Amino acid sequence: SVGDALIDRYDGATRVIVPNTGIEAPIQRNDAATQRVARRDRYSFELKPHNPTHNSPGKKDLVYLEPSPGFCEKNTRLSILGTHGRTCNEASDRVDGCDLMCCGRGFRTQTMFVVERCN
After folding, report:
1. Pseudo-torsion of CA 16, 19, 22, 23, nearest 10°?
2. Tens digits of residue pLDDT in 32-86
3. Whether residue 108 has pLDDT greater than 60
4. Domain of 55, in residue numbers
5. How far apart are CA 33 and CA 79, in angstroms?
6. Which one of 51, 103, 108, 114 is most buried, by most CB atoms within 10 A?
């Protein structure tokens, strides 16, 4: 499925650096044929992998410039609330599951009995 393909690409994303030399803005022309070429080859530089032992990313690879901040711990400067105190699904192995949401710190199970009157 499309979702599985995106997850695979996301998991294999490459951190890259952009060279600060040789970057030129595309030349705008009125001719339709040159517009197509300019659109296809609009960048005159190659993204280099941050880790020199990795291959350069391909046309369909996902890339990123900086790693994302950690979302497990609270960071008020970045408005990240952290995951402490959030309710998780103990039976799930997805993003709502306790293992992922609690960032491997472990979690506390709480059972509550609620008695309500019927109408």
Report:
1. 60
2. 555 555 555 565 667 888 888 888 888 888 998 888 777 777 888 888 777 777 7
3. yes
4. 2-64
5. 47
6. 103
Nearest Cα to 63, choosing from 16, 99, 25, 103?
A: 16
For residue 96, the one-letter residue type is D
Query: Is 5 in contact with 40 (CB distance < 8 Å)?
Result: no
Place of tokens 């490459």: 14
Please check whether residue 116 lies inside any domain of the structure. Answer: no
Establish if 118 belongs to a structural domain.
Answer: no
Question: Tell me, what's the pLDDT at 48?
Answer: 86
Question: Of the candidates 48, 44, 66, which has an alpha carbon nearest to the alpha carbon of residue 57?
Answer: 48
Q: Are residues 74 and 30 located together in one domain of the fold?
A: no
Q: DSSP letters along 77-101, please?
A: GGTB--STT---BTT--STTBHHHH
Beta bridge partners of 89: 97
Q: What is the pTM of this model?
A: 0.50
What CA–CA distance (Å, rounded) separates 55 from 46? 12
d(CA 25, CA 71): 36
